[in-house]
Amino acid sequence: MKTILKLFTLFSVILAALGQYGSARALSGPVFDYPVDGQDLDYEGSYLFRVLPMEEAQGFLWGFFQNDVMVWENYRDEGILSGNEYSIHPDTVAHAQFAPGDVEVWVRAMVDGNWTDAAVITIHLVPRAFYAVNIDIKPGDPTNHIPVRGQGRIHVAILSTAEFDAPALVDQASLTFGATGSEASLISCKKKGKDVNRDGLPDLVCNFSIRLSGLWPGSTVGILMGQTIDETPIAGSDSVTILN
Predict the structure, then answer these.
(1) Do residues 146 and 215 make contact, with C-beta atoms less than 8 angstroms apart?
(2) DSSP H or E run through 168
(3) Is domain 131-243 in CATH 3.30.420, yes or no?
(4) pLDDT tens per residue, range 10-61
(5) 13 phi and psi, to 5 degrees?
(6) How many CB atoms lie within 10 A of CB 242?
(7) 117: Cβ contacts below 8 Å, ≥ 6 apart
(8) CATH of segment(s) 2-126
(9) Closest Cα partner for 120 from 38, 41, 40?
(10) Span(s) in the chain for CATH 2.60.40.10
(11) pTM beyond 0.90, yes or no
């Protein structure tokens, strides 16, 4: 905590030293409106923060820390002070700096040329829960043999259940498959469902590139990831045998 305070104070002192903020007389700090201390936020979503407005505030210094390391700060990383609301959105440089887990959020205001005390809360960035799907790599082939040096395709079926209609519910463009599940190896999916396990339900069969899958001789499992059309994450895995 002392290390964080020193780092955060350092940036405040630097700003004051620019000659446009004056001395650093302590004033009562901002009050968080949202989120509240200890609140869980969606790790993959937008992070939205707000403190109550303060009269005569010239700007707010927002700092974010994980494991006593400053991962993002509006003045250091953007060159500006912000208003009493601050947001970090997916697919931005700022969002990429965060990892799941606890984040200390610090905010100070500049009022009449002086810094206020810091207001501090801790939030928890929680990854979205995955909906587990059953998959069948190389349907009809119980060996699941895959030539690691092959330039061909791997057929992977996402199996439907009474509660999960794979052809209708899966966002096909979101699918990734391979050694870790994040490999962008999708080639295509069949337009119509096919009942590969003969349970009377149509399954979704897709083709993935062997070369792009990242599977290698030490691999024992292939992992599929993606999301449904309503953006619920899905994941499934099946055993593989890699042939040299």
Answers:
(1) yes
(2) helix 166-169
(3) no
(4) 555 455 444 333 344 557 899 999 999 999 998 888 999 999 999 889 999 9
(5) -65, -40
(6) 19
(7) 26, 27, 28, 29, 108
(8) 2.60.40.10
(9) 38
(10) 2-126
(11) no
